[in-house]
Amino acid sequence: MKFNKQQWQWIFYDWANSGYGILVVTAVLPVYFKAAAHQNGISAALSTALWGYANSAGTLVVSLLAPFLGAMADYPYAKRRWLNWFAGLGIIMTMILGALSPNAWQWLLIIYVLSAIGYSGGNLFYDSFLTDVADYRQIDALSATGYGMGYLGGVMAFLIFLTVELGHGFGWLNDYGIARFSFILAGLWWIIFGLPFLKNAHQRYSVPKEQKPIVASFARVIKTMRHIRQYRAAFWFLVAYFFYIDGVDTIFTMATSIGSDMGIDTTMLMVVLLVVQLIAFPFSIWYGWLANRTSTRRALLLGICVYLFICLQALHLKTLRDFWLLAVLVGTSQGGVQALSRSYFGKLIPKENSSEFFGFYNILGKFSAIIGPVLVGIVTQLTGESTKGAASLAVLFAVGLLIFLRLPAPSD
């Protein structure tokens, strides 16, 4: 499917902030912070706890405010301003991370929390722009291509960092310097590839302008919460989404721990992570194609069923080959499930209130990452086998699948 200039700019915003996702959130800053905290006499247990608190704080702020922020952004010409504000906050804070000394470990946490608020808030408005830049026929392919390019962009940024890392900083950077370089790289990646959309994003749909927008936004959010049954399909989809996306996120976040328990070394786990990201690129786009050829509903059902199969097969995880097989399967469906969930929801909601509704979508996406890790932890502790803990996630996919099957299908 051919995309216009605005749609490609929207797609490349996903490419742009993916460097932050893989370099700052996932691969480098957690290790860098642990090393900096240790250098300053902070115990491993305390630094891990502080890192956990920082992650929770950053996402919690945006998640709780998401519907209200979305309602504010639904006024005419407001959505791009809010996107620019949060993206700007994220970019500036990410660049500051690259300027901080490892001795300033407290500031590392504070600046990271602010960068995470910018990143999460920016993604809320970016997602809600989907209904502005795509019509009903294009929405699946565009959402899927955005996710696919996001995965590819993250891999490209990570490979640049990896080149510097394997080159030992080429004589210019020590270990701390290489880590700080990665944060500057993430910030530059974000601004260079994201600037076209940040500059030119056009909001097509909006609610009427109010004289008291803050008060009116609160009132609209409360009204939506009270009358959510008017949007029955959207409401029940969010319930189904809460369960199955919890499983998707938990598998991704717990995979390295499960691999370590199997005796797989860290280098191999990093290779697996990169391969999964690379596989997710073409398969995310393929899911968009499949949705157009069949329906969004059928393609999304396929992705959920693949994950259900992955969980059940986790009971048979014994060798590195088994781990690779399931990792590849995750790569085939991870981006597809995320992308089509976003576009499916976009088809169910009123376009003029898209930011407000995506605020609720944002909340469910963030708070869903609670049940899965706890479930895996309890089952693993009771059985002594992390593979059985992973298999227990089948319950979340089964519940999400059953609820999703009862939803009326939007006309594709």
Backbone shape: globular
Give the tally of β-strands.
0
What is the makeup of the main sheet? none
What is the correct CATH architecture of the largest domain? Answer: Up-down Bundle
CATH class of the largest domain: Mainly Alpha
Task: Return the CATH topology of the largest domain.
Answer: Growth Hormone, Chain: A
Commentary on this structure:
- This protein is mainly alpha-helical and 412 residues long.
- The chain folds into 2 domains: 1-226, MFS general substrate transporter like domains (Growth Hormone, Chain: A); 229-412, MFS general substrate transporter like domains (Growth Hormone, Chain: A, Up-down Bundle).
- Helix content is 80%, strand content 0%.
- The chain contains 17 helices and no strands.
- The protein has helices at 5-27, 29-39, 44-73, 79-99, 105-128, 130-133, 139-166, 175-200, 213-226, 232-261, 266-293, 296-313, 320-348, 354-367, 371-383, 386-391, 394-405.
- The model has no long low-confidence stretch (mean pLDDT 87).
- It comes from Limosilactobacillus mucosae (Lactobacillus mucosae).
